[in-house]
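To close the section, here is one more complete example, presented without commentary so you can practise reading it yourself. The ligand is adenosine monophosphate.
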Amino acid sequence: MKTIYETIDPAEVDTPRAQAILEKAGEIIRAGGLVAFPTETVYGLGGDAENREASKKIYAAKGRPSDNPLIVHICALDQLKEIAAEYTEDMGRLAQAFWPGPLTIIVNSSGLIPHETTGGLDTVAVRFPSHPVANALIRVSGRTIAAPSANTSGRPSPTEAAHVRDDLDGKIDMIIDGGHVDIGLESTIVDLTEEAPTILRPGYITPDDVKRVLGACRIDPGITQENTHVRPKAPGMRYRHYAPKAHLTIIEGGRQQVLKALATKAEESAAGGAKTAVICSAEAAEALKAKTTGIEIITIGAEGNDDEIAANLFAVLRKCDDDGVERIFSESYEDGRIGGAIMNRLIKAAGHDIITV
Ligand code: AMP
Ligand code: MG
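Output:
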């Protein structure tokens, strides 16, 4: 299949040119085809959420396990009311506070969304994205759009159209390039089908944000760092994920000790013949470049700038793959509002290999 490649400036979705592209994309969705598009979190791979064949195509294009459900994207609250078995006050509160935005809500299914989309579950994940291109595409298509991240299953999520092209060129009908995404981490998932609201996947909206709105919020014990033996509720959180091809080790501890350990371990690895990279803040990069040779130093953002680090995380992991890196050492980034969400991804990418110095 030849993949159509189009560009839309998110600030200009209302121009006739953008509208023409969106019309064409909407036609593809209505015909059961697949369109990759930017959202505020990561790029999504979209198909008609009510079309079983479209959902099957999404799983096939990504190589995604069929028990890992898709998130259904909407552009109006009424669509949630049709998808959910019952519309509750908590749904209204979350929608009011965080939609459109980077929050996914798990609700009991009315049966409208087929099992091919929900991975066989009787619950559905629903999100109302704020990205102008995503919003316009859902509206123009006249459908709700099932869209997982637009990457090959297991690879780091795509934060630029080039990442989508690397993974899915020739496998999907269209890619809409809307530039680099804002947030760079997938949406926060809140499950409203349990007794208490439960975070199944951390993201830009934090547990405290949810607690402020609903009065309570717990975190799925399966996703906390201490409980590696507990099964996460979200099927997608059970798989090895976000992983670069190279083995990644996180080094945490006092600043000076971490810098020293990064330098020694990376040099040892390079001396052993492995192409080696260090992922670190701009400040640490300065220090390491002066101290080391023969190591690729990749800057992830300014020290302590969690928004910037989140936005660059997946691109940095992909760069390691592109450069043929075989061994990676990284600082840890738990500081700031979304440090927890960043570390959730990084620790998975490292297969829980963490050294404390
Ligand atoms: P992705 O769209 O690729 O970011 O993945 C969607 C995430 O949402 C995966 O981790 C899924 O397992 C999770 N998810 C989707 N639907 C449900 C559901 N009904 N219950 C629990 N988790 C879900
Ligand atoms: Mg994904």
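Once you have examined the tokens, check your reading against these statements. The radius of gyration is 20 Å. The CA atoms of residues 199 and 219 lie 5 Å apart.
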